[in-house]
């Protein structure tokens, strides 16, 4: 059945997309593997030129790209530039410049003298044809954060964008093909969850999944059926800790942006804020004041700061969580307006206090512009509160003493901890994003991000092939005592044992009749 692309701010139909028939996916995978064999023979410089041509198209047509992102996803135009196009271009620059160096073969250092006749190295080889399944909240940046290193490393990609942002998926693919990426090397697979599921069942060489924790668990289970390696970038409930010495003006602006940009629909947005009791009241007062100035509406109007919620189901998740928290005693200090306007769903930035720790708002991902703020007495309590979550993607600590902030960062259970900033680390191509616990396994960006795209393979050459090995058959009592003495000689911590064994080694060696 045909899928529709809808503007979440207006309900306007933006286009129709034919889903990829699931019956075709195995053939598409075979064609992708054939294309990959040719692509992987090309030098990095040629792959890099193709990706630079792609980046050029993004630069030249940035306005068209930004408008499409804003219309299909609902985010403000400024964010389409600042948090989609900008970091995507940096990712292309980074991997085009660094891939050769990062994936350079590694010479193996052989420690044991008996094995020193060998020469060995590790090569980082592409997996083959990998599946990249993406969500809707950053429809350009998230796929490119994986497609670019996958292609640079020599893989073919089967790319399934979200069913809520299929047109941005089309745009990425068309720009790639126009830049010279062969069609079968980057295969566009459109559709909903059933198509994503069929893609995994077809048996790609690795699955890269970004999306909710609930779907991620299904993806991990489905991948396990073929023992397919999988990378999971999942949901979260990121904590922000505000210490008593933090600058309240800057920390409230950070909280404002970190919690409400992209209408709170960011995997690493601030979803729990813990504030020291000494600065709690001033924090709430100033944040509330700043929240009143935010402008809500369609992202395509350059003045709007809080766009639409992606769809009705997400809007209902947010309302349910807020209502449940209120029932359990929470207070809405600011915002709390939920409304449908011109066919779009909107939630005004909402600040909540007195939130019960077991309410859904504190335990489950909200993915909306709602910020619960909790008071703490000392640092130990703040760490305990921040770590009381099944998720662990990112966190931030705000303090005038960055050394103290970094020490505290080590106690927080998360894939990334930022001192005195929030969210923007996702825009650093050499940074690192990835979660612990139910936020997933695997990393994107940087060196670790491209190492996810390759399978390390060990190569070895024996340079003395005619030499009979001491550990081969036949075994006898001389072989046994040779190894006992050799262990003492090489590894004993006692000097006298090592020196005395040296004199015993040679006669044993001669009696072994292996030389
Ligand atoms: P989702 O899990 O509903 O869907 C993600 C993708 O998976 C979509 O393309 C969807 O069609 C596909 N899919 C659905 N069912 C599938 C199945 N059974 N098998 C294979 N594919 C299937 O997530 P969403 O609503 O699109 O995105 C929001 C979620 O993504 C949030 O939880 C957010 O935190 C998370 N996210 C995480 C990161 C990160 O880096 N950790 C980044 C962005 C978003």
What does this structure look like?
Strand 17, helix 14 and strand 18 (416-419) form a beta-alpha-beta unit. 46% of the residues are buried. The mean pLDDT is 96. The chain folds into 3 domains: 24-234 and 448-457, Aldehyde Dehydrogenase, Chain A, domain 1 (3-Layer(aba) Sandwich), CATH 3.40.605; 239-434, Aldehyde Dehydrogenase, Chain A, domain 2, CATH 3.40.309.10; 468-510. It has helices at residues 25-39, 44-60, 62-73, 77-102, 141-152, 166-179, 193-201, 213-225, 248-260, 280-292, 312-327, 360-363, 379-387, 402-409, 446-451, 477-491, 495-511, and strands at 3-6, 13-17, 106-107, 118-126, 129-133, 156-160, 186-188, 206-210, 230-233, 238-242, 270-276, 331-334, 338-341, 344-347, 350-353, 370-376, 394-398, 416-419, 440-441, 454-462. The chain is built from 17 helices and 20 strands. The strands form 5 sheets. Strands 12-15-16-11-10-17-18 form a 7-stranded mixed β-sheet, sandwiched between helices. With 515 residues, the chain is of the alpha/beta class. Nicotinamide-adenine-dinucleotide is lined by residues 133-137, 142, 160, 162-163, 192-193, 196-197, 200, 210-212, 215, 218-219, 233-236, 267, 365, 367, 393, 433, 435, 440.
pLDDT < 50 runs, ≥5 residues:
none
The span between the termini is: 73 Å
Query: Which structural class do you get from the secondary structure elements?
Result: alpha/beta
| CATH architecture type of the largest domain | 3-Layer(aba) Sandwich
User: CATH top level of the largest domain?
Assistant: Alpha Beta
User: What's the structural domain tally?
Assistant: 3
CATH homologous superfamily title of the largest domain: Aldehyde Dehydrogenase, Chain A, domain 1
Q: How many beta-strand elements?
A: 20
Largest sheet: 7 strands, mixed
What overall geometry do the principal axes of the alpha carbons give?
globular
Radius of gyration, CA atoms, in whole angstroms: 28 Å
Range of strand content: 15-25%
The number of helical elements comes to: 17
Q: What is the helix fraction of residues, given as a range?
A: 40-55%
In spatial order, strands of the major sheet run 12-15-16-11-10-17-18
CATH fold description of the largest domain: Aldehyde Dehydrogenase, Chain A, domain 1
- Give the mean pLDDT: 96
Bound molecules: nicotinamide-adenine-dinucleotide
